[in-house]
Amino acid sequence: MSVGLLLVAWELYANYSGIKPTILPAPSRVFEQATLNREALIDNAVPTIRATLIGFACSLGAAFALSMLVDFFQPLRRALFPVFIVSQTLPLVAIAPLVVLWFGFGLTPKIMLVALVTFFPMLVALVQGYEATEVEIGQMLRAMGAGRWRVFVLARLPSALPYFFAGLRISITYAVVGAIFAEYAGAAKGLGIYMLNAKNNFRPDLVLAAVGVSAALTLILFGLTALLQRLAMPWERIGRQPAGKGPGR
Amino acid sequence: MSRLELRHVRKAFGGLDVLADISLSVGAGEFVSILGPSGAGKSTLFQLLTGAEHGEGEMLFDGMPLDDHGRHFAFMPQRDALMPWRRILDNTTLGLEVQGVRRQVARARVVPLLAEFGLAGFERHFPAQLSGGMRQRAALLRTVVQERDMLLLDEPFGALDALTRAAMQRWLEQMWRHHRWTALLITHDVREAVFLSDRIYVLSARPARVLREITVPLPRPRDPTGAAAQQAGALEAEILDILLNPQPSKGHDHD
Ligand SMILES: Nc1ncnc2c1ncn2[C@@H]1O[C@H](COP(=O)(O)OP(=O)(O)OP(=O)(O)O)[C@@H](O)[C@H]1O
Ligand SMILES: [Mg+2]
């Protein structure tokens, strides 16, 4: 709705203010050009999607393994977290060209950058999630005779799920941005390099078309995580409904 | 013959003395309550028994020192500690699952008890879909199916409204008469302690020591309306007086 209003205002401004389409094209023109160039756009979106998904999967795996390690050996946390925090403050603008310089124009540097920007949020989400486990549940499990591993699997892991999905939703948007940034710094194909080329050819309409594609991509991934959460945490959804459906007593 | 016996148990957290001197015993098939003000250290005592914390003094079970290996207790924590992500059936079988009992077998043990615990028809529900009283009964079911030597109940009805609590107390008294569990109950509800217990240990405020050991002479089944109700009322008044004026400790030394 608000997006629609914005587009209408933009369309009117671009058509009636006398601004040149090479500066600010109307959305209708962007859409038209996007349709005309859809093959090129799709062709360039595929590597971006691939880099996003592979990079994100790598970072998820690493974050999960490390979160467990940190949960079992608390001292590690104090030792490692400063390093990770520093890794988050590195400016992407400076790092992206360096990584490309070191690892070439292929998939590797993109995966690395996506992993770099998403790893820490996921790690923090997981570690915080484990800590959110109700103290009483842990105590009760130990009194039942459960060891640390059982407590982790039965209580700490499920307790972390809401945090995990909150982290997932944030990181997935970072992931797309990270991939595009990496391509911007140098790539054979990808939405990032497509935007760069379009800009250099004075085609803001094509830049915006690529932006539209990346926005759609982000939205789809975001929606997928929300869907995944609904499937993985049925009690969240059902729990909010009153218990009226159950048989009476 | 007492099953659980504590002799001069003490516990401090850092510099904070929580348990000053606790001696008590619980006999086989006996329902014993620990009654004390909030913050006295009642839950801490259960932490010592379940091995979550370590203190000083002697803790014996059937005459043998308690260690971390002998699992004598089924413990119900102060909050119900139901897992929101597990359905009621899977919450109640949790203890058996941890013991390594196969799921089918565990369920077969729990299912016949669901009706008695007022949970029939709700086994597929999540805890968030249950009322407070039902959650407590589910937590209690999870505790008793473990078939340990003794129940440790930490304020099982503390979070309930007065009406539900009264109903739950009657229900538990009735359940206890059927099953004759050996049970140690923590509460700060004087009426609850008198209504449910064979004996009551009254604790002081922190650092906790035993102010008085009281045997409840009321006949069972306990009837909150009958002839014994007056006797119960007098006992409640006496205990309240001990709790509110703890200094002139008349009945000290009960070893
Ligand atoms: N792990 C701990 N570390 C430090 N202090 C603790 C710890 N556990 C409990 N305490 C302290 O011990 C005291 C007694 O706590 P405890 O939970 O045993 O009280 P309680 O009698 O169960 O109270 P309530 O009736 O309100 O549940 C409190 O002052 C609390 O702050
Ligand atoms: Mg307590």
TrEMBL record, chain B:
UniProt entry tagged with the keyword ATP-binding: yes
InterPro entries xrefs: AAA+_ATPase (IPR003593), ABC_transporter-like_ATP-bd (IPR003439), ABC_transporter-like_CS (IPR017871), ABC_transporter_ATP-bind (IPR050166), P-loop_NTPase (IPR027417)
CDD domains in UniProt: ABC_NrtD_SsuB_transporters
Alphabetized UniProt keyword annotations: ATP-binding, Nucleotide-binding, Transport
GO molecular function, one term: ATP hydrolysis activity
The keyword Nucleotide-binding is annotated on this UniProt entry: yes
SMART domains with a match to the protein in the record: AAA
PANTHER family: ABC TRANSPORTER ATP-BINDING PROTEIN, TAURINE IMPORT ATP-BINDING PROTEIN-RELATED
Family of this protein: Belongs to the ABC transporter superfamily.
Annotated protein name in UniProt: ABC transporter ATP-binding protein
Organism: Mesorhizobium jarvisii
Lineage: Bacteria, Pseudomonadati, Pseudomonadota, Alphaproteobacteria, Hyphomicrobiales
